Amino acid sequence: MQYVSTRGSAPALDFEGVTLAGLASDGGLYLPAEWPRFSEAEIRDMRGLSYPDLAARVMAPFVAGSLTEEELLGLCHKVYGDFGHAAVTPLVQMDAQHWLLELFHGPTLAFKDVALQLLGALFELFLERRDQRLTIVGATSGDTGSAAIHAVAGGTRAEIFMLHPKGRVSEVQRRQMTTVRAPNVHNLAIEGSFDDAQAHVKRMFTDPEVTRVLDLGAVNSINWARLMAQVVYYFASALQLGAPDRSVAYSVPTGNFGDVFAGYVAAKMGLPVERLIVATNVNDILHRALSSGDYSAGGVTPTITPSMDIQVSSNFERLLFDAGGRDGAALADQMRSFEASKAMQLTNAQAEGAAALFTSARADQTETARAMQWAYRNAGQVIDPHTGVGLHAAQAMAAEGVVAPQVPLVTLATAHPAKFNDAVERAIGVRPALPSRVGDLFGREESYVELAGDYATTRDYVLSHAAASGEA
Ligand SMILES: Cc1ncc(COP(=O)(O)O)c(C=O)c1O
Ligand SMILES: N[C@@H](CCOP(=O)(O)O)C(=O)O
C-alpha cells in the first residue's frame, strides 16, 4: 500500500514510512493512494471475530508491504489484550434507537488509547528495524497527551515532547500526563489555545532548523496510523448491529475530525454507514463548514468539553482532498490561503462530497448537560460531557428525521466520565470515581515546564532538550 500527501508534492511512502513521518514534507497529510474495499461477503465473514482478530483483518490492507500478517496479528493481540473490558470497545443500548460505543477502556480512559497503544508498538518495531531514534512532538487538548505518553514512556528509541494549553485541560487530564516520570517524556504547558500548540507542532515538521538535527515523529491524528486503528471500532460496532445487512449511523463528538474521518474510511471500505453526525461544541467551525461551506476560524471559547475546544481541525484537510476530487496542487493553494487568512469557502465538489455522508450539529453547554441528564435518568448511564455533545447531536438528528427511527444510531463515548468529574457532578449531581487502573493520580508528583506561547520558544526548548540533538 502506498500513501500520498493531500498537498500533492511530498514523495509517496509505504505504511512504515508514513507511520514514522507523521506529517508529509509538503505540510500535507498522508492518505492511502486508493481505498481498499471489502465485499459484503468478506464483511459478513468478520462476524464473531474477537476484537484483536477483527483489528488485524480490517487493518491488513493498509499495512501490506510493511508488516506480515503474523506481525500485525501479534501486535493486535499484544495491544488489545490489555484493555479494561474483554470486548475492548463494548456497545451499550440506551433505548430502541440509541447506543453508546464505549471507547474508554484503555489505560488513560479515552478513545485515544485504542490507536495510540498500537502506534507505540509500531514505533518500537519500525525504529528497531531501522536502528533509528525518533523525537515525537505532539499537541494535546487533554487526551492525546496522556495516551501518547503512556504508549511511549520508558522506551529507548522514542522521546516525546507534549504541548498542552496551560490551564485549559481538566485536572485529571493534566495529572495523567505530568505524573508520568520517565527520562524520555517532556511535558510543556504553553500559553494560548490547543490551536496554537498544534500550529507549533506542524511548523516544526517543515522547519529546516529542526528537521536538520531531529527525526520528528507525530502522535496526533495527522499520523495516518492513528486513524487506521480507529476504523476498527466502526466495524466492530456495525457488525454487532447487523452489518453488512443493516446500515448504522454514528454521532461523533468532534474536534480535530480524526475520529469521524475514521468512520468515513470505514464507509469507503464497504461498511454500510448510513450517516456520520459531526457533533461540535460552541467552537463550531466544522458545523459551519458542513452546513454552509464557511470554514473560518474565530477565537477559541473554553468549555466543559475542553478536548473539543479546537477551531483549526487537522483532518478536515483529508476530507477536502478526498471528497473534493484529490487535486493536491489545488488543495495546497487553498490551505496556504486558509493558513494566511484563517478563512475559506468549500468548493462545490468538496461541499457536495461531504454532504453525501456527513451531517453536523452543535451543542451548547446547557444542551450538553441536558443530554447527560437524559442518559443518567433514562438509561442509567453516566456519560462524560464530550459524549454528551455527541448524544445531543444524535437526539437532535433523530428528532429532525435526518436518521430514520429504524436505523441504529451509535454515539461514540469518547472519554470516561471520571476524567471530567467536576463537569459531570455539576450536570447530574453524581461524582464518578476514577477506575483503580489509573492508580494514585492525586498522590503523585507532577512535573512540567511552562513556556510562552510563541513558536521560537517552543522550538528552542525542543532543540535544546532533545537527546537526539546532542548526538547530532
Ligand atoms: C474526549 C474527546 N472527545 C472527542 C474528541 C474529538 O476527537 P477528534 O479530535 O478526533 O475529532 C477528543 C479529542 O480529540 C477527545 O479527547
Ligand atoms: N482532543 C485532542 C486534540 C488532539 O487531537 P488528535 O486526535 O489530533 O491527537 C486531545 O485530546 O489532545
TrEMBL record:
Keywords, ordered alphabetically: Amino-acid biosynthesis, Lyase, Pyridoxal phosphate, Threonine biosynthesis
Pathway in which this enzyme or protein is active: Amino-acid biosynthesis; L-threonine biosynthesis; L-threonine from L-aspartate: step 5/5
Alphabetized CDD domains for the sequence: Thr-synth_2 (cd01560)
Pfam families: PALP, THR4_C, Thr_synth_N
Cofactor: pyridoxal 5'-phosphate
EC number(s) given by UniProt: 4.2.3.1
GO MF entry, a single one: threonine synthase activity
Reactions this protein catalyses: O-phospho-L-homoserine + H2O = L-threonine + phosphate
Domain Threonine synthase N-terminal residues, every copy: 2-80
Positions of the Tryptophan synthase beta chain-like PALP domain: 87-345
Coiled coil: none
Membership in a protein family: Belongs to the threonine synthase family.
NCBIfam families the UniProt entry points to: thrC
Entry protein name: Threonine synthase
Protein's organism: Erythrobacter fulvus
